[in-house]
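Follow-up to my post from last week.
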Amino acid sequence: MIAIPPPFDLLPTLWRGVGVTVQLTLFGSALAFGVALIIGFGRLSRFRLIRLLATVYMELFRGTTLLVQLFWAYFVLPHFGVEFTEMQIGVLVLGLNYGAYGSEIVRGSILAVPNTQIEAGIALNMSPWQIMRRIILPQALLMMLPPFGNLLIELLKGTALVSMITLADLTFQGTLMRVSTLRSLEIFSLVLIIYFLLAYPLTLALRLFERKMAEGRS
Amino acid sequence: MLWNWDYALSILPSLLEALQVTIYATIMGFAFALIFGLLLAFGRRSKIRVLSLISGAFVEFIRSTPLLAQLFFIFYALPQLPYVGISLSPLTAGILGLGIHYSTYLSEVYRAGIDAVPRGQWEAAIALNFSKGRTWLNIILPQAIPPIVPVLGNYLIGMFKDTPMLSAVTVVELLLTARIIGTHSFRFIEPFTMVGILFLVLSYISSLGVQWLEYRLNSRT
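User reply:
Got it. Predicted complex:
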């Protein structure tokens, strides 16, 4: 075997964690998007009960904090006879938590579509469903994209917390190797740099998109 | 019955005591972030290119990496830095981590506040022959800070909700206390649920406070 010069000999082990981090980000954000849509629309429902339930959900998941939720799912749920793998808990809690934050984005974007647009739809004799699908959503979804991009970056950073429930993501591999090699400075410098390399392209893509959106608008 | 009220009541005093550590870390961390964030905002505006570049890169890097990994870096890696390496106590490391992480967010908030002060105010200060320091202290900051107070408040709540991460670097705050209690008694339902409720109640009340601040600010103008 060819010896890799330090500190890069640490990379293969860290690399295994990167896969878990990326998986968590992908599945977690997919679930978060779904939850955000359901809760966001729920908060705008005509029915008071649905509005109330959606608001309670949002406040509950935003207020009790991500790490406490992860611990709760990891330590308490088994007492109720519910057994999940660490990966399932990670995806589930990340999705439910960031979905609660995302629901405000959905609600805000839909409310931001000017009322005259809806009136125009009514004037054209469109059904409420048609108005939603062909007038409100195309405009609202475009407005949602930049804040959802920011939320995706936050979620990527949030995945680090799953290391606390022994799920072997990038941060967890770092803490494991710290114990076995004691080369903390090299390990955590690399860990931070890898996270930066994962997150920063997202930031740049987001800025490019926002610039494109702003073109020809003013 | 899964939930045991006697047990819950018996652990409440220890949890409330640990809550003090959590709140102390939040306040100290936020004070650090307020000051360091303002320095970063000044740094980014600086005419000295190196300074503005370094401040900008620092903000981008810290904002793109997880607080938890930064905490591990401060607690475990910092002591190994050659020549300047220092070992910090868990609580100091935690406060420093929270403070540095949030200062990068606050620097952007400050920047927005400063940019919102009309140009005429700068020109008036020049016309009155104010020194640079006096312009900042008497003209710009008094107008830039009040509008951003609610945003700062939201970040304070955000920081409070991030304090459970300090348990990773062995700060015995609320969450770690609950975990220790749970490990000793093999009962996790009560401690973790109560920690969740404490965070929920405190952050909800604080967010009502921020909303009230926002309302007052809007009705003033």
